[in-house]
Specification:
Strands 3, 4, 5, 6, 7, 8 and 9 form a 7-stranded mixed β-sheet that branches. Strands 1, 2, 10, 11, 12 and 13 form a 6-stranded mixed β-sheet that branches. It contains 8 helices and 13 strands. Helices cover 24% and strands 30% of the residues.
Length: 331
């Protein structure tokens, strides 16, 4: 039986390439093999409304991340330029950009590490806000704080709310159980970092004790890389196809039943019970989703531990797809 770690790795890999992954449960035997209700497989198709180049070549002027353009220029000119903690091109997807008729693949490499200190804000719940606040320590209202502190309190609140409770935490925003004030923020405007900082803040109808600590961080230093990969639009399309596109489907080679399945999948979704119809099995094989067509579907569906390319070329068009296996008896 495949491990849950394998399934998790596949899900994360699929999220980094805009390709939508195949999600599946795992059990020892299909319910149909034990006389129970059949498992079902849902197939959905998401057509692209543009070509590959328009979809995947990034206009850095529109990313609104100020260091992207500077990193791209530095990488093209072999200039000494680095970023600390933040990656120059912060995305899990492949990044391509165009300049002067040349297309570049953008990436970064770690070239060092810096030991730095940052203030960390954590909150501890004290009490509810009540009409009778006599004798209570003074608390500043969240809305009266500078913007840098309002953001910090909101993130630290997410961490405090999650302590001891079942639920998600937005890791990436929440760090070290609170909010980390980093270089580049307007920390000089902060009230919570001032010498006379308030000890309590009100937020979401509660009073929170403010805890601040200066802690040590070890941050990666990145150097941007821009590798020329194409000199024309057609070459760039080929680069993206070779990187992202998996199956190629010729509409003329498909049966009428297979085309009907694709049509249903791109509208309301196509749902089939196991054992799947022959036309669906044939289409799954064309998509190289043989785990759903051969062997034990319940054990093998979605269990492979390598990055999948689920962008499909269908004639002159492209689409992504999602497969979801629902085991018998699951809600």
């Amino acid at each position: 039986m495949p491990s849950t770690e394998i399934g998790r790795r596949r899900f994360l890999a699929a999220a980094g390439t805009t390709a939508l992954a195949t999600l599946a449960g795992c059990s020892d035997r299909l319910a149909t093999e034990t006389g129970g209700d059949a498992s079902t497989l849902t197939f959905r198709v998401f057509p692209f409304d543009t070509g590959l180049r328009d979809r995947y070549v990034t206009d850095l002027n529109q990313t609104r991340v100020p260091w992207d353009e500077a990193a791209f220029a530095a990488a093209r000119n072999d200039s000494e330029y680095t970023t600390q903690y933040v990656e120059p091109f912060p995305t899990r997807e492949p990044v391509w950009a165009e300049f002067g008729g040349t297309y570049y693949h953008l990436d970064e490499v770690v070239v060092g590490e810096e030991e730095v200190t940052h203030p960390v804000l954590r909150l501890q719940e004290e009490r509810r806000v009540s009409e009778d606040e006599s004798g209570a320590p003074p608390a500043v209202d969240h809305g009266d704080l500078p913007q840098v502190d309002r953001k910090a309190v909101q993130v630290a609140y997410m961490a405090a709310r999650a302590r001891g409770n079942v639920g998600g935490v937005p890791w990436g925003l929440v760090q070290r159980g609170g909010y980390v004030y980093r270089d580049g923020e307007a920390t000089e405007d902060s009230d919570l970092l001032a010498d006379d900082a308030p000890s309590y803040v009100t937020f979401r109808d509660r009073v929170w004790a403010v805890e601040l600590a200066t802690e040590t961080f070890h941050e990666a230093v990145y150097r941007p890389v821009a590798e020329p990969v194409a000199e024309s639009d057609a070459e760039m399309e080929a680069v993206i196809r070779g990187t992202l596109v998996g199956a190629r489907l010729d509409p003329e080679s498909l049966s009428e039943s297979e085309r009907e399945i694709l049509s249903d999948a791109r509208t309301d979704g196509y749902v089939a019970e196991h054992p799947f119809p022959d036309a669906f099995v044939s289409l799954l094989k064309r998509l190289d989703e043989r785990a759903y067509a051969d062997g034990n579907v319940s054990k093998d569906g979605g269990a492979d531990d390598y990055p999948r390319r689920t962008v499909v070329r269908y004639g002159d068009e492209y689409f992504e797809y999602r497969l979801r296996l629902d085991e018998a008896g699951e809600n």
